[in-house]
């Protein structure tokens, strides 16, 4: 007999009619949230879901009696995730494990999944350390390469190229290789190959004696680890890169210390290579290859019980079928990106990545030691200040774990962009102080406050946003464009900063990036839609609002903030965002500004 859900009164959607035999499945009284949030399994009764789970097993060669039972129960649990207490057939252990996922999320994570998270965090170390060890290493290798004359435009161009070449390679090659490599080698194979190339390239950088060889070694594609690891892990490894620079500064040989700094980044890459195949392969990769039994075995390693593994695999398969139907009817994806208004509005996403880099954070990450030394700081002081900045960049990212969903992506950007503007403006004019001690203190305070403000806002938001805004049928192309934009403008900033500082001085350069934070504020206000807690169906409504109408909302919101915050008018009416976005005939719950009663 199929598993059932004990009834508490009113029937859920899809319940059998009154003439159904008593042996049929009865449903819980509440209208399930799954139906509201677009669960593709919502609307099916428990008996139907149980039969679908059995059909899935027979279709994919899953014959073990215990596994079939897991899929029957898992399918019902996928359709009614909050009814774990009332689904008949679950053991006490299975019921407890399902409950912990809702009430005690951290305790519900099995050891193997923690190991996967650890390895993915090491992947971030490969990129984060590589980005920041060059910060201190360039202080020494520019002498070895003969590009240390700060008054020569040629030397400034070459220094920018040595730092920016990896990001240009990523924009033109790396991000476009990620999808085919994942398809051919799987997630583990792709990470292994990427880290192996990275280790070889980093070692090559450390052994070069000419800037041309250095550029060739540094120009290797980087895998997009950030899609598999948190922003917090990435910035934590940035901090490690700064620490490595400071540690190897004590080496007496000037020609050796920069080689040790650059060569140290091979260590995390080789560790990942050693650990990559100890992780389970992505179940989604196996499913795309039609290897559902392997996908189930992989999922079992990352869940507490077989029922939970079957539930997630069955649900993922349902989503893949929806995706396949959409992609199959999508036609020309590139044309669809620009012809469909909903997609055109989502295509504004690359501008968020541009503003993320134009905010100036990567200039500090790549050139802080060089900037401080140029302004009269000692080398040890410059490296120590850079390490402190990297530490605060990491600590500041921790609150984003909680705030990005609590306050929303749009609101975080609107709050942090003006604060980042103020911090960089303070830093830019701090270079005018004649006293060396006062200058060091003020510049340090300005850059440190900038790191604290940037980390929970403009740092993680664009990456979270990019994973949400595109519909399934054009998501891969949209994400590739967003990723290429990220890397390209990373290259532009890394390449142009030495020339910019030469032309504008440090004060002018920091003022330039401060101004871009104001531009980012207004672009966010007028064009960035809120995506917090929205489903794919709801996001269609959010992004289908014409740009002209959303621009009007931005103007109204600016007026509201002016009256509420500057004129202290607590009765100022909130802009009518609810009337802008409608999904399934019902206004959305999200209002991106506080109530006038707040």
Automatic annotation (TrEMBL):
InterPro entries: MFS_sugar_transport-like (IPR005828), MFS_trans_sf (IPR036259), Myo-inositol_Transporter (IPR050814), Sugar_transporter_CS (IPR005829). Residues 17-26 have a biased composition (Polar residues). One of its GO terms (molecular function) is transmembrane transporter activity. SUPFAM superfamilies: MFS general substrate transporter. The lineage of its organism: Eukaryota, Fungi, Dikarya, Ascomycota, Pezizomycotina. PROSITE patterns: SUGAR_TRANSPORT_1. Pfam families: Sugar_tr. Belongs to the major facilitator superfamily. Sugar transporter (TC 2.A.1.1) family. GO terms for cellular component: membrane. This is Proton myo-inositol cotransporter. It is a multi-pass membrane protein.
């Amino acid at each position: 007999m199929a598993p059932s859900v004990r009834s508490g009164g009113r029937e859920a959607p899809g319940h059998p009619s009154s003439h159904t035999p008593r042996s049929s499945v009865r449903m819980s009284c509440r209208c399930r949230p799954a139906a509201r949030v677009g669960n593709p399994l919502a609307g099916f009764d428990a008996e139907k879901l149980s039969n679908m789970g059995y059909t899935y097993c027979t279709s994919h060669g899953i014959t073990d009696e215990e596994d079939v039972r897991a899929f029957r129960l898992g399918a019902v649990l996928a359709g009614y995730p909050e009814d774990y207490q009332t689904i008949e057939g679950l053991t006490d252990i299975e019921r407890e494990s399902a409950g912990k996922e809702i009430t005690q999320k951290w305790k519900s994570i099995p050891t193997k999944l923690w190991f996967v998270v650890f390895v993915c965090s090491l992947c971030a170390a490969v990129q984060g350390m590589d980005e920041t060890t060059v910060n201190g290493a360039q202080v020494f290798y520019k002498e070895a390469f003969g590009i240390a004359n700060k008054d020569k435009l040629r030397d400034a161009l070459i220094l920018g190229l040595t730092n920016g070449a990896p990001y240009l390679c990523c924009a033109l090659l790396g991000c476009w290789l990620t999808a085919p490599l994942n398809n051919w080698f799987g997630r583990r194979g792709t990470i292994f190959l990427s880290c192996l190339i990275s280790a070889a390239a980093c070692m090559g950088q450390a052994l070069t004696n000419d800037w041309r060889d250095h550029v060739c070694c540094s120009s290797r594609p980087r895998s997009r680890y950030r899609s598999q690891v948190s922003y917090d892990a990435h910035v934590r490894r940035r901090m490690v890169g700064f620490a490595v620079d400071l540690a190897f500064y004590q080496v007496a040989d000037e020609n050796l210390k920069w080689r040790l700094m650059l060569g140290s980044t091979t260590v995390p890459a080789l560790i990942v290579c050693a650990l990559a195949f100890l992780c389970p392969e992505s179940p989604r990769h196996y499913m795309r290859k039609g290897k559902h039994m392997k996908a189930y075995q992989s999922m079992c390693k990352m869940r507490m019980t077989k029922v939970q593994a079957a539930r997630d695999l069955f649900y993922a398969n349902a989503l893949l079928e929806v995706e396949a139907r959409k992609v199959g009817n999508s036609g020309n994806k590139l044309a669809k990106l620009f012809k469909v208004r909903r997609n055109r509005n989502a295509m504004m996403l690359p501008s968020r990545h541009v503003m993320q880099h134009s905010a100036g954070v990567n200039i500090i990450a790549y050139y802080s030691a060089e900037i401080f030394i140029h302004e009269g700081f000692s080398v040890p002081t410059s490296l120590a200040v850079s390490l402190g900045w990297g530490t605060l960049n990491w600590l500041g990212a921790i609150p984003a774990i909680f705030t990005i969903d609590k306050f929303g992506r749009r609101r975080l950007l609107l709050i942090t962009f003006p604060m980042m503007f103020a911090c960089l403006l303070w830093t830019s004019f701090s270079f005018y102080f004649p006293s060396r001690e006062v200058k060091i203190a003020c510049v340090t305070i300005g850059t440190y406050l900038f790191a604290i403000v940037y980390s929970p806002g403009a740092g993680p938001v664009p990456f979270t946003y990019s994973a949400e805004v595109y519909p399934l049928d054009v998501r891969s192309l949209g994400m590739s464009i967003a990723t290429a934009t990220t890397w390209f403008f990373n290259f532009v900033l890394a390449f142009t900063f030495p020339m910019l500082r030469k032309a504008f001085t440090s004060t002018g350069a920091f003022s330039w990036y401060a101004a871009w934070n104001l531009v980012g504020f207004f672009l966010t206000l007028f064009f960035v839609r809120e995506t917090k807690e929205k489903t794919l169906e709801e996001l269609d409504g959010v992004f289908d609002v014409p740009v002209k109408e959303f621009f009007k909302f931005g103007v109204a919101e600016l007026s509201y903030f002016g009256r509420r915050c500057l004129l202290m008018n607590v009765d100022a009416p909130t802009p009518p965002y609810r009337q802008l976005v409608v999904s399934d005939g019902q206004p959305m719950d999200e209002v991106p500004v506080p109530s006038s009663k707040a």
